[in-house]
Amino acid sequence: MEIKFTLLWFSLFTTFSFAKIITPRFPSSIINRPEQLSVSTNDQKGLYKSMFFTQTLDHFNYNPQSYDTFQQRYLINDTYWGGAKNNAPIFVYTGNEGEIEWFAQNTGFMFETAPSFRALLIFIEHRFYGQSMPFGGDKNIAYKNSSTLGYLSSTQALADYATLIIDLKKNLSATDSPVVVFGGSYGGMLAAWFRLKYPHVTIGALSSSSPILLFENISSPYAFNNIITQDFRSESENCYKVIKGSWQQIEDIANQPGGLEVLRKSFRICENYISASSLEGWLQTAYIYTAMTDYPTPSNFLNPMPAYPIRQMCKAIDDPTTGNDPFGKLYEAAVVYYNYTGEAGQCFDLADNSDPHGLGGWNWQACTEMIMPTDGNNEESIFPASTWNYSDRVSVCQQIFNIEPRPTWITTEFGFHDIKMALKRFGSNIIFFNGLRDPWSGGGVLKNLSKSIVAIVAKEGAHHVDLRFSTREDPEWLVDVRRREINIITKWLSEYYHSLAHHSH
Amino acid sequence: MEIKFTLLWFSLFTTFSFAKIITPRFPSSIINRPEQLSVSTNDQKGLYKSMFFTQTLDHFNYNPQSYDTFQQRYLINDTYWGGAKNNAPIFVYTGNEGEIEWFAQNTGFMFETAPSFRALLIFIEHRFYGQSMPFGGDKNIAYKNSSTLGYLSSTQALADYATLIIDLKKNLSATDSPVVVFGGSYGGMLAAWFRLKYPHVTIGALSSSSPILLFENISSPYAFNNIITQDFRSESENCYKVIKGSWQQIEDIANQPGGLEVLRKSFRICENYISASSLEGWLQTAYIYTAMTDYPTPSNFLNPMPAYPIRQMCKAIDDPTTGNDPFGKLYEAAVVYYNYTGEAGQCFDLADNSDPHGLGGWNWQACTEMIMPTDGNNEESIFPASTWNYSDRVSVCQQIFNIEPRPTWITTEFGFHDIKMALKRFGSNIIFFNGLRDPWSGGGVLKNLSKSIVAIVAKEGAHHVDLRFSTREDPEWLVDVRRREINIITKWLSEYYHSLAHHSH
Q: Which residue positions does the secretion signal occupy (chains A, B) (predicted)?
């Protein structure tokens, strides 16, 4: 049995797969998608105002096109700010690969800590996402080909952030206000890199669930799926075994006459399209993203889900009252991810390519610099055994973008081979948070690198759970993680103010 | 009296002026230029071998042209290397704006310390200089216009160095060999920035005479010329006064019928061209570059010169035996710079545009990111009073390259506003050397920024004198400076080896 999902994990942190671009085999959404996730272009809940900054297209070259500009969106909330006169702090979220509003709405930690820090809140949208589109704001042009998409890179994004923050502080007459940067996932990588590359712009970074070691051979390409395997196994050995065995069962039945129709019925797949591999991709998406968002309280990040959703999936699979039909059990597990609110339509559309959070640019990033080996599966894996194969990536990227990845660039620019050696006596003030139930923690910094470049690890945590809005039901370990983060940030600020007081300009 | 030499100081560290491109008013060389300064394309003196590395044109973008490559030259000397097995160190010179051989030949410090450190020596040529020419190695294409010159930038150069060093170490199986970077002048800025941006590639930087604070309003635009004034004044008040008064005298005589011919005769200027301002530029060049290279021993960096050449200039001016002809005295001062060896031809050609060290690309850099305000002159200045005027720069750059400078980019990317605040708790292992007779020290780091980001200041020192080959006549303070630098580098290495021994990969 060979299941082709080598490309499945390309789309870091996103709800849909790279593979979709090649062929509509791996959709993740359903017809009549509930609207509660869609981000309106208006400011929501009074949390922030949208602003725009005229940004330079290319910071590192000086050819004529480099001087082009675009409107970069940022969100601002000054409700709690102590003001420039008091040198009150500025908290900046370094936006990741999607609509900035979506990230802001899932980063309650900044809103909740702003009042006591008297902080100004800024969320900056990443170039080529949301409304921050170069080339006249026209996504069709910006995404047309590699000549325009070429300007979508992490180094340009970091330089955008530096440029915007410096200008904003100048305009606010707040040049002495300390800036702390926050980010989760790819945004967390950007936050950590930003502190390392622009220490004159930010005094510290909270880098949450950033798989910053998941490049080249620094981390194992099996780590990601091993963690998912372990997540399910820790709930129930039977649950793990049922899922692990299901791939062959799906292949077997799909190869029988009328077998695909049986599968269609079992999983309520729409009439327009089905194949064994697209169905498998649909199930894998559910397991992967549920592992990422295995939060201790009900959440609505990727999809609306209950607390500890893996437990709910395994409950459905282990349920003795539902008989022996494995597909029925798998279906019930899948709907924990796809239809927990029961508002889904009549069927699930495997050909649906919708992208409600505007995450599509990640495919380009995954074909240029973000070469993160995640899709190895050993014999124990809950997914079929497979090896990470770089040449597969290359050929897909050639096919789609006519481009060759630069797999060693990220480590050339940002390091992290022998990170401890490099940072033991260099740099300061970074928190790396990781939740060990999050598959991305397989590429995270899990140990302190120095006195002030520290790791906070939560055994029960999932993907940047620390950054989420708190709830009454939050477990004690999560309250404790946030308390520790607040204490560290407090220390950075007090050291900064101490230096400022003893510093003559 | 108004003398237009606003553009004179554009060409940081170079022997000729930006102004030459607009109009041949400010040549610096003479007919029949002595050949001893010209760099042969062959390896000289067995000091090194030339090698080439296939380098990426654009590290920060992914458009089709970014994938172009070019051959980047580097010089290598492995005579003293202790080898990969011993993790013996690698000393890298981060090349500046000219032929790399010229810089190598003037960086004896690395050759002289290599044996005791058992170091491999590498000198990397900066893109767009010497033989490291993008666009097929053809300088005519590379320098054609802003579409090609656009790729000449400091950030691209730093990424070149990181890429080349990582690849070289891999090829030598020397990934654990520590790298120390060295540079003087603009190369010193690159060395310091390289340590700050690529701490995973280098363990420390010796940044010599790098005017890293000479951007925006961080340093005074009068600092540069104040130091030159002080250099001459410290030798003799009369010498300073004669030079200071000469500008008006030259103007006066130039405005008389036949006056220019008098000047031509006094200064042995060739028949082809003369004007008051070009003559003034010729004299200013002599004073400025003599101040920069006011070394305690005879040297041949910009031109062959005696020890303490400012003293020799002032001796000529103060000499009571040469009567009262101020032009005759000024001429004798000028030849200390232009013709110390007496090998000059019959006359000095004010229209000569020769560029023996290939420094011409600096004009582009001075029109894009290297906006360093140096040409303010207060009332006390040895040069006519003038103010730094950014808009003059803009209009010249528009005229020549049709380009707008980005005057805030360097501080956005590298910081150095409030440098002490930023680096007090960030970064490590940088030595900033400055000699206070060097006008560029007006933009240098003259105080320790932290325990391991330290300033070494030599009151009697000139432009990166510490990096030069030592001589028997070196004064004690210079021997001491080098001893301190060696001790600090020794400490970096021993800390590195200690960490390596206690580090598991």
A: 1-19
